[in-house]
Each structure stands twice: as structure tokens, then as C-alpha cells.
Amino acid sequence: xxxxxxxxxxxxxxxxxxxxxxxxxxxxxxxxxxxxxxxxxxxxxxxxxxxxxxxxxxxxxxxxxxxxxxxxxxxxxxxxxxxxxxxxxxxxxxxxxxxxxxxxxxxxxxxxxxxxxxxxxxxxxxxxxxxxxxxxxxxxxxxxxxxxxxxxxxxxxxxxxxxxxxxxxxxxxxxxxxxxxxxxxxxxxxxxxxxxxxxxxxxxxxxxxxxxxxxxxxxxxxxxxxxxxxxxxxxxxxxxxxxxxxxxxxxxxxxxxxxxxxxxxxxxxxxxxxxxxxxxxxxxxxxxxxxxxxxxxxxxxxxxxxxxxxxxxxxxxxxxxxxxxxxxxxxxxxxxxxxxxxxxxxxxxxxxxxxxxxxxxxxxxxxxxxxxxxxxxxxxxxxxxxxxxxxxxxxxxxxxxxxxxxxxxxxxxxxxxxxxxxxxxxxxxxxxxxxxxxxxxxxxxxxxxxxxxxxxxxxxxxxxxxxxxxxxxxxxxxxxxxxxxxxxxxxxxxxxxxxxxxxxxxxxxxxxxxxxxxxxxxxxxxxxxxxxxx
Length: 534
Prior knowledge:
By secondary structure, the chain is mainly α. It has helices spanning 2-18, 25-28, 37-50, 55-63, 112-125, 132-144, 151-160, 164-180, 185-198, 201-207, 216-266, 273-294, 302-324, 333-355, 381-403, 405-415, 417-422, 427-449, 461-474, 479-500, 502-519, 530-533; strands at 67-70, 76-82, 85-90, 96-99, 105-107, 371-374, 377-380.
């Protein structure tokens, strides 16, 4: 008899909800266990329409399977586990009801359709939340799952919203909700205009079905809007490719700029350059491991600590390579190439012995994590900071070469080694410092690459060929040429990849460079000087 009475009361409340009459949460929540899933869906909609701030907790508990009906008395409670025991809290008052005995409650069941209703209801309720972030999330949820019954509620929320970002999201949610149900023609045309202004892929997917609508004006407006979005997406696609190209170019610049000054001053084809990049990446790994173990609060500073250490370590190894091997092989290109290749294999094996062959984890500091939107283009913080870092390194190197004594000596040796020696410049010392500077910059490249690539003994091998292509294309020894070559090849690669694939695009770029060098053997920006000319 009790269940018949409750069922009758539930049917009355469902009827009440279907007529759109206001109800309190105290009237609605006790009816949730009764009726079919469809009946519960109507009660959930009525709960959303109540606007009661307690409703979010009730619906979230229902969605998570934590809303129960007590066997004795039929009270609706929220169940939580504590110390292996099930504890009950009154769904409306929040009062602690103590431990639930065995079989003392029964979970209120939901199905997939009801789960969708609950999520929509939660989204609608949070439109009134004081927190703008929660209102924004609710508006986005309403956009993804439009419910025609919520048009008026969204319209009121739009009118009351003061936050510009939330209001824009509410406008979009209102637009798709209007188009999802029966509305007057003026409202539907306004909704199409709003989605046209939004201009992204999601808006396009909402507009596509309307292109075949029986209303000719609506179909024409939708067709024009889809065409506009397609054109806009092409433009943003070009912008995204340019950004990807600049991002790749910054990586190539860091990897190649040290090689450019080494090759330009001494004419040494350093096949161990990639392993110097690898040493910078492993230095970053060691710094982060030390900080994680002893000073975790400094993790966000780990890259700033690792960068000078990587420069010193890689630079020191570079000086050792030059003093120990390379200086005996000047003028013998093939022997130098073979010797530095052998050194590269030794460095790889040394790293495998010390750290193992597997990839090592290097984390992103908080300020390099995440992404942001520019229009319809996504920009990740780590790539943006690497671009900034590459340009800073370039500017510092340019200052060293143009405004310091060692830079003046390096340029003198580049242009005419014999004349520089006769003027009292210690060319052997300049060679060592130049090799060390190029190696140190390779170490800085390793710090940056550790944030976007796997730190492994093979890290440097992935960039050595591309680095040589950049140097040859830009002009050996000219860092402005390296800058232009890195970004040109990076952008060219990213525009070719969608058409040809990553591997074929690299092959095409290589063929282009070979043909280009046939016409301009000294690259884009040739270094001038007597020694060079001879």
C-alpha cells in the first residue's frame, strides 16, 4: 500500500513537472526512486528548473550511484564509505544519519538516457553558480548537449551574465538549443548568425544538417555560414602551419647554430654535435632528479638551473674534443668526419652505460605546461618558450660575435686565418674557444629538446642531418643565414607534411637543398673573406 501511495504521488509530481509548474526540492527528491527511467528523467528536469543550490549535490550523487533510498522509512540519502563502512547523509539537509546496516538501503538506478538528463541538469544548475568558471563549464556542457526545454533558462542566463567570456559561451549554447527544437524563424536565423560568428568545427557540425532544412531562408543562411566557416578554417589552418613551422624552426636553430659557428670558423664537420645536444638533455635530467629528491619546491626553476650547467658541461666536452682530436686533423675533412663520428659512438655508449638505453623522464615546469588559444589556433606553452629561448640564444650569440674581443677574433680567423695569426691572434686558442662555444650552445639545445622529445642516447641522431642541412642552406659560418635557413626549412616541412607525409617531405626538402646548392654553393648568406674566397 505504501508503494502504491508513493507511486501515485510520484505520478502526480511528474504530471506537475510536465505542466511546467514550480516545485520545491523537498517535493521532488523523495520521488526519484519511483516510476520508470523516463519518469525519473522528468523529475530530474524539474529539479534543474527549481534552481535550488542543493540540487547539484543530489544530482551528482545520483549520477555517481551514491544516492540511495533507505529500506526503513524510504528517506533518500547520500551514501559514502568511511573505514569500510557505509555512512548515510540526508540528501536535503546534509544531516549525518550514521552507519547504514546491511541491506538497509537500495541504490537509485540510472540508465544511459537518464545519465544524459542528469548531466544536462547539472549543467543548467551551475549556470547560476557564483563562480564564473563553473558557469562557463555549464554553458559549454549545454552547447554539447542541447536541450530544447532549456531555451528560456539559457535566455535568462544570457541576459543576466556580466562576464564576457561566459556570455559568449551562453550565446553559443542558446543558439544550438534554439536550433535543436521548434522555434520561430527570427530566433533560428539569429542562432545561425551566432554560430557563423563562432566559426569553429563544432559550429560547422551544428549547421550542416540545416543546409537541407525545409525553410529556404534558414537553409540559405546555414549554407552561407558553413562556407564562411570553411574559408575561415583554411586561413587558421595556414596560420597553424606557420606556427608549427616556427616551432620546428626554433628547434632546428638551437640544434644548428653551434654547428654553424664551428663549421664556419674551422671547417670541421663535427659528427659528434648531436651527442653534445644529448649531453645537454641528460644534464637537464640529472638536475631534475636532484631537485625532485632534495628540493622539490625548486622544480619550476629546474630548467634555469640546468641551462648554464648544460652549457658548461657540453662546452667542456667540446673543448676536450678539439684539443684532444680535432686539432690534429685540420685540413683533412674525411679523417675529421670519421674521428668525430667515432667520438659520437663513444659518447652514446658512455651514456648507455651510465643511464641505460631506455628513455628518461624529464618533466615540464608549471610555466611550460598547458596551452592557450589564439583565435582558432592552439599554442602550447612549451613550444612558445622554446621559440623565445632560441631567439634569446641567437641574440646573445650575435652580441658575443659583434661586441666582444673573442667575437672579433673569431671573425678575424674566419675571414683570414693566416692574417689573424700574423696580427698576434692565437688561432689555436680561438679554435678551442669556438669549438667550446658551439658545443655549449648544443648543450642549451639539449635543455630545450628535453621538453619536447624523448631523452635517450639516440636524441642527437634525430637532429644532426637536419642541422647540417640548415647550416649548408643558410651559409656556413653565417648565423643570420642559420636563422633564415632554420625557419625557412621548418615552415617548408610543415606545409609539405599534410600533402606528402613526414618522411617524403624531408626527402623533398633535401632534394631542394641539393638543387639550391648547385646554384648557390655558399648558401643564402655567404661568408666573405680572403680565406673563404680561396
